[in-house]
Amino acid sequence: MNIEVLELDTLSKNKLETKNLVNELVSANKLLLAQNTALALENKELGIIASIFHSQEGMLITDANLSIVQVNQSFTDITGYLLEEVIDKKPNILNSGRHDQAFYKQMWQSLNYHGKWEGKIWNRRKNGEVYSQYLSIAVVTDALGNITNYVATINDITKGRATKEKIANLSYYDPLTQLPNRRLFLDRLVQEIDAMSGNGRRAALLLIDLDRFKNLNDTLGHHLGDLLIEQLATRLVPCTRKKDLVARFGGDEFFIFLTNLTGTEIECASKAQEFATKVMATFDTPFQLDDHHFSMTASIGVTILGGDETSTDMVLRQADIAMYQAKANGRNRICFFEEKMQDDISQYVQLERELSNAIALSQFELFYQVQVDDKQKPLGAEALIRWNHPARGLVAPGYFIEIAEETGLIVPIGQWVLEAACKQLKAWEAIPQMRGLTLAVNISSKQFHQEDFVSHVKYIVKQHGIHPALLKLELTETAFFQNIETLISSMNKLNGIGIQFELDDFGTGYSSLQYLKRLPLEQLKIDQSFVREIEYNENDNQIVRTIISMTQNLDLKVIAEGVETENQMQILLDGGCHRFQGYYFGKPLPVAEFEASIANSGI
């Protein structure tokens, strides 16, 4: 054989072997790459599974042989099984026994053909309880299509249903007392009113409102207030029949609806009265609030329904009016709705609306009543508000002050009076006869206890440039019933710039001598109710003399209001009073007439 040919064959053979080796290496690299890719995909998929494994849904993972390899905390919460109790076991430990073989055959067909199954299924918890769940099962495969795992997701349907029921319960029942709430009560009331129409039946609606419940919350805390509400609910329910409805309307208000009452309206009212009396008797026993024995009363408003009611709003309003009438009559009592109450409340609402308009349109005017010394020489005046009503004409404060207090409108009205009085004092500086007169202004308790009252008064005094000592602020004893220390502090701040204070209507309320000594008062005013019969009533005479003597001991001045006769003035003079106000010296007058009267007095 030719050597050259031999070498060529050898070379070709080596090249072929090298080529085959290269091909094998390439194939091996491709396989390795494919395996790495599959592993990466598998890791990615497992990462996704891990990321959702901590969800609120129960999760269970098995291997290809259906042996459990992992469960999450939610699975344990739902089933009661810990991981160590189910590891390496089959999921059939959860079977309830409620499903036949056909059910599971269909499940496995779906898993084999579609790689997933989902649906409702009954399973059993560790404690033996059978429950309904929504189950989703997914098949996990590798890159070559081989099954590696099964992943199951569990949602407890019974838990969701219980949550929905709890939400529904909160929608219709009061969480504190478990009584029907406003919503359920109104639904029932509408149904009952509709059902009563034309059937000759009657019903009664009672509104129970606790008296001064706020005092309990303020003194002992809201926790004990809630405890009292709970205990009251347990007392009210036994008072009623099964067909009646007891509801907590909100706060400290309860409604009791007595249905299917027979007889005339008077007879039904008598039955409602008897029932309301039984309810009132439940308050005779003090409430046990932790370590406290607490007595509570209630006011009850009652309205009788006869099937001709036009709306639930009307019925509720009637009960509300009756309840407030019970409050107005002294609390701790029962009141029935009457047409007159409706008329009164309508007038009240109308008056409130008109009063609001009066503030916006500045329909007020100040009148002035002179105050004199024992020589009948004018010392000053009291500013008295009048309302120039567009329809009723000039209206005295007795017509609207009470409603202004109740609605809070007294605050803006009081601010207007104070500013108008300071403006008038400034104007009097230009009139020689008026220049030295003081001006007394009534300040309501609500107005005085406003946070910005002191700064507001200082601002008005400075704005109008008046001498502070000419301004007297009259307070009544009701101002002392709350925040006495704050009141004293505010009075001292204003007194510090020269403003004087006077205690109005003294003797009609309850004044503590301890506080009287601390208050920066300049003068007490004897109420006209004592002056009116001082000539004939020895008790009033003695009260007046006692007040005068007390003011002397406290180093205070005293003025008597409501003086209408010379004899009254003389009795007051003999008792030691040297300042007076009343019709005997002058009626309240508009500013022009008042200025003319002062000019004619010769001062």
- Low-pLDDT segments: 1-8, 37-41
Query: How many domain units?
Result: 4
CATH C-level of the largest domain: Alpha Beta
What is the CATH topology classification name of the largest domain?
TIM Barrel
Query: Overall mean pLDDT score?
Result: 84
Q: Strand count, sense and closure of the main sheet?
A: 8 strands, mixed, barrel
Calculate the terminal CA-CA distance, rounded to whole Å.
163 Å
In CATH terms, what is the architecture of the largest domain? Alpha-Beta Barrel
In what order do the strands lie side by side in the largest sheet? Answer: 13-14-16-17-18-19-20-21
Helices, by number, come to: 21
Q: What is the number of beta strands? A: 22
**Rounded radius of gyration (Å):** 44 Å
Beta-sheet strand percentage? 15-25%
CATH homology-level superfamily of the largest domain: EAL domain
How would you describe the overall organization of this protein?
- The protein is of the alpha/beta class and 603 residues long.
- It folds into four domains: 1-52; 53-161, PAS domain (Beta-Lactamase), CATH 3.30.450; 173-337, Alpha-Beta Plaits (2-Layer Sandwich), CATH 3.30.70.270; 355-600, Alpha-Beta Barrel (TIM Barrel).
- Helix content is 47%, strand content 23%.
- The protein has an eight-stranded mixed beta barrel with strand order 13-14-16-17-18-19-20-21, surrounded by four helices. Strands 2-1-5-4-3 form a five-stranded antiparallel β-sheet. It has a five-stranded mixed β-sheet with strand order 7-8-6-11-12, sandwiched between helices.
- Helix 20 (566-575) links the parallel strand 20 and strand 21 (579-581).
- Helix 7 crosses helix 8, helix 13 (410-428) runs parallel beside helix 15 and helix 15 (453-464) packs parallel to helix 16 (484-495).
